[in-house]
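Try this one yourself first.
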């Protein structure tokens, strides 16, 4: 940042862009601002963590491509720049090709990450089908939803960067280099569509989980319904003979108690057989 602040007046950079480089990481987003003689952009790399990983700023002038390393937690920004430098031969290298190679390196390997995420969601679907999803499953769904939203926003903003550079409003690039920005934009769009497909899969997974919960609740309610239906006639019988009226013949009958017990047992057996036949149990 000290180097940028010292060079900014000499290179003709706006003080507002330098201040943006000093902003807190959480305020960063992927964008490009077009000025008369240069373009300024910011990129917040993300791997699904809401705090992001790395933040960089880009200054692009004719004959100059400056990367400001604002935050690089793992050295990936420098590694991406070195990969970009090695992608084209020095004789064929131009500013447009270098910027394309650098932006492309920023999203290199993201397809494999999305593929792994698809497998993770498929495993979650298997847990639901096997009735193994526990209470922590909803937390898993919420965390995955947050990551996918971050990824979607990230790729949408990268698409905007590619399109803005491809429009070449301030004529910084030769026409022959503009096709590289189209290639980058198409790749970012494919990744964004992949994230949208994963998000739809996640929505279906959440609906399947809700259906599983409904089935579990129906099973519990069915058990309570069967028990209620089983004890209702027994309660009626015991309530009937619990009135103890003076002229009830069964009160003085020698086998009255045995008769009522046998009657209750018979009713219970008949109800259980009926429920089994109807597959309620």
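Now uncover the answer:
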């Amino acid at each position: 940042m000290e180097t940028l602040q010292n060079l900014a007046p000499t290179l003709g950079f706006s003080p507002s862009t330098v201040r943006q480089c000093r902003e807190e990481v959480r305020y960063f987003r992927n964008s490009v601002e077009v000025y008369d003689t240069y373009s300024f952009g910011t990129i917040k790399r993300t791997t699904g963590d809401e705090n992001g990983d790395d933040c960089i700023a880009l200054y692009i002038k004719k004959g100059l491509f400056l990367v400001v390393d604002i935050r690089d937690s793992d050295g990936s920004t420098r590694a991406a720049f070195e990969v970009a430098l090695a992608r084209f031969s020095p004789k064929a290298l131009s500013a447009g090709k270098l910027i394309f190679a650098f932006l492309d390196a920023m999203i290199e390997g993201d397809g494999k990450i999305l593929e792994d995420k698809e497998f993770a969601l498929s495993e979650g679907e298997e847990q639901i089908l096997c009735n193994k999803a526990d209470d922590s499953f909803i937390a898993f769904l919420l965390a995955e939803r947050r990551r996918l939203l971050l990824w979607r926003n990230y790729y949408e903003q990268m698409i905007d960067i590619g399109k803005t550079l491809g429009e070449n409003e301030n004529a910084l690039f030769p026409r022959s280099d503009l096709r590289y920005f189209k290639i980058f934009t198409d790749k970012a769009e494919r990744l964004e569509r992949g994230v949208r497909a994963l998000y739809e899969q996640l929505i279906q997974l959440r609906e399947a989980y809700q259906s599983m919960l409904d089935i579990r609740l129906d099973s519990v309610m069915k058990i309570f319904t069967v028990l209620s239906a089983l004890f209702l006639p027994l309660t009626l019988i015991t309530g009937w003979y619990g009135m103890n009226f003076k002229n009830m013949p069964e009160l003085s009958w020698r086998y009255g108690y045995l008769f009522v017990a046998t009657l209750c047992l018979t009713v219970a057996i008949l109800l259980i057989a009926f429920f089994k036949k109807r597959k309620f149990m």
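Discussion: The beta strands are 31-34, 39-44, 55-61, 64-71. The longest helix spans residues 178-241.
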